Amino acid sequence: MAHALVVGGTGMLRDVCRHLAAHAHHVSVVARSRAQLETLARDVAHLGPPHGPIHPLPVDYRDLPAFERAIRSAPADAGPVTLGVCWVHDPAQPVLHAVADLLTESGLWSTLVHVVGSGVADPSAAEPFDPHLIEEWGGRGVHYRRVILGFRIESATSSRWLTHAEIAAGVIRAITSDVPVQVVGTVEPWDRRPV
Ligand SMILES: NC(=O)c1ccc[n+]([C@@H]2O[C@H](COP(=O)([O-])OP(=O)(O)OC[C@H]3O[C@@H](n4cnc5c(N)ncnc54)[C@H](OP(=O)(O)O)[C@@H]3O)[C@@H](O)[C@H]2O)c1
Questions:
Q1: b/e sequence 107-133, b meaning 16+ C-beta within 10 Å
Q2: Is the previous residue joined to 50 through a cis bond, with omega within 30 degrees of 0?
Q3: Among residues 22, 27, 78, 79, which one has the least CA distance to residue 50?
Q4: Residue 59 CA: which ligand 1 atom is closest?
Q5: Which of the residues 43, 56, 87, 166 could staple to 162 if both were Cys, CB 3.0 to 4.6 A apart?
Q6: Which homologous superfamily does the CATH classification assign to the domain defined by 3-192?
Q7: How far apart (Å, rounded) are the C-alpha atoms in residues 57 and 44?
Q8: What is the rounded CA–CA span in Å between residue 12 and residue 115?
Q9: With bands split at pLDDT 50, 70 and 90, how would you rate the model's confidence at 9?
């Protein structure tokens, strides 16, 4: 069994956790609400084999030392984490860095899937993430993958944000493919984004 860590896994990434569990992964999930985490763990446990277990990690990732402790607290039989999936609001960089450190500790090739909002595609905005970090992680065997959540243009006059199902499908595609950057939906033309 492999071991995946999903940070922010009880909201729109819930089906990503379920997908990973269905593929016999141990899935450690970070969120603040213990109740939401336990509901997810119970739902998956009811599905039975080949589903792997969900390990609830109730912690606020803005408390970095507590977060670093929590992501190392899964049962030992879950094995080393080799896949990290992160949906993190500010400050994202230290949280991502802590997950990259954990992946490095596995001593195995690993993948860090970073889910970001459409704001990174705003032509007037600066890149919010230090690109040297991504290079540094690559040198340590951690492959960084970015999933940009865009929007859907439905007609000449209307567009909408993504559904949870579309978001989960896009993130699962990023986990299973080897593409550095994927856009779910579109981010162009930028002025057609929903308001
Ligand atoms: N382009 C798009 O279409 C797009 C992009 C982004 C979002 N959205 C939509 O916007 C909705 C709301 O977005 P959302 O950001 O609230 O996403 P969400 O995925 O629904 O919820 C955020 C996840 O992160 C966890 N979380 C949040 N803050 C945390 C913290 N400080 N420490 C630990 N875990 C934390 C939450 O659990 P706890 O609250 O229990 O901590 C939850 O698991 C989404 O559900 C989606 O429908 C759409």
A1: eeebbbbbbbebebbeeeeeeebeeee
A2: yes
A3: 22
A4: 33
A5: 166
A6: NAD(P)-binding Rossmann-like Domain (3.40.50.720)
A7: 15
A8: 11
A9: very high
70 pocket-lining for ligand 1 (C-beta < 6 Å): no
pLDDT at 90: 85
- The answer to whether residue 129 scores a pLDDT higher than 90 is no
Q: Cα dist. 134→68, 89, 128, 145, 149 in Å?
A: 19, 18, 12, 9, 19
pLDDT for the residue 131: 85
* Structure-token pair, residue 11: 């909201």
Q: Is the CB of 60 under 6 A from ligand 1?
A: yes
pLDDT score of 20 more than 90: yes
Q: How many angstroms does the Cα of residue 162 sit away from the middle of ligand 1?
A: 13
Of all protein residues, the one whose alpha carbon is nearest to atom 7 of ligand 1 is 117
Task: Report whether residue 62 contacts ligand 1, using a CB cutoff of 6 Å.
Answer: yes
Q: Is the CB of 149 under 6 A from ligand 1?
A: yes
